[in-house]
Amino acid sequence: MAQWRESTINANGIKIHYYQTGDAQKPAIILLHGVTDSGLCWKHIAHVLEDDYTVIMPDARGHGHSDGLATGFAYEALAADVAGLIQALNLERPYLLGHSMGGMTALTVAAQYPELVRAILLEDPPLVDRAENSTNNGSRPSPMANWLAGLKQMTRDELLASVRTENPKWDEEEYEPWVDAKIDVDPAVFQQIRSLQQSWRELAANVECPVLLITGDNALHAIVTPQIAQDALQYWRYGQLAHIAGTGHNIRRDNYSAFIQATTAFLHSV
Length: 270
Hints:
The protein has 270 residues and is of the alpha/beta class. Helix content is 37%, strand content 16%. It has one domain: Alpha/Beta hydrolase fold, catalytic domain (Rossmann fold, 3-Layer(aba) Sandwich), CATH 3.40.50. An eight-stranded mixed sheet has the order 1-2-4-3-5-6-7-8, with helices on both faces. Strand 7 (211-215), helix 8 and strand 8 form a beta-alpha-beta unit. Helix 2 crosses helix 3 and helix 5 crosses helix 6 (172-184). The protein starts with a strand and ends with a helix. Residues 27-125 form the AB hydrolase-1 domain. This is AB hydrolase-1 domain-containing protein. InterPro entries: AB_hydrolase_1, AB_hydrolase_fold, Carboxylesterase_BioH.
């Protein structure tokens, strides 16, 4: 990581913190993390991609060292942040690779700012129809809010021990960024989490660029079902599906080699 640059810019009215590889002459790819993660949660993937791409790993608003949560937490805002980042860094139609919340953010950018994006790769994004997308009503904390609150009561060493025990197949490089992201994330994201509900079908229908949808197994808590995956492909003229068996929601962490193979093959084809 010695050749990576850490910086902060003001875009879309907020401070966005990010890491970037040094060679700006290569095609750019922006890695968009999921909720409670941070930009550095991509570094295991970035080590491979940086040979061929300028890799940019921003912290989403309310995460890592970025701010902006006070001005809203909806996919439109997250997408506008990414669009602002692309424009501020003068990037020429970068690729977007997003996990979960980051995948929906990438989908929103491609739908609403098509001129800014070359192709998108979506790692188990929350493609859930609204009738199924139920969250708790009222002011009662969500299960994820309670989960995060429990994590924040632990010491860093306790968090490391816990994530290693619960995810023994992850690469060692995954654990510390995951822990630090949980320490840094603003718990208030879960007070606004319902703002992230949005019709993925409306977005998908407006995406013209190439898309790679990467899915795991629902029995292991992956979100995208086989039926939803097939529905999604009907919207995209240049859509591809990569199902990686034996993985859950964290596909790249559960099977790093298969994830890298799928993503690099797609990137080299578009």
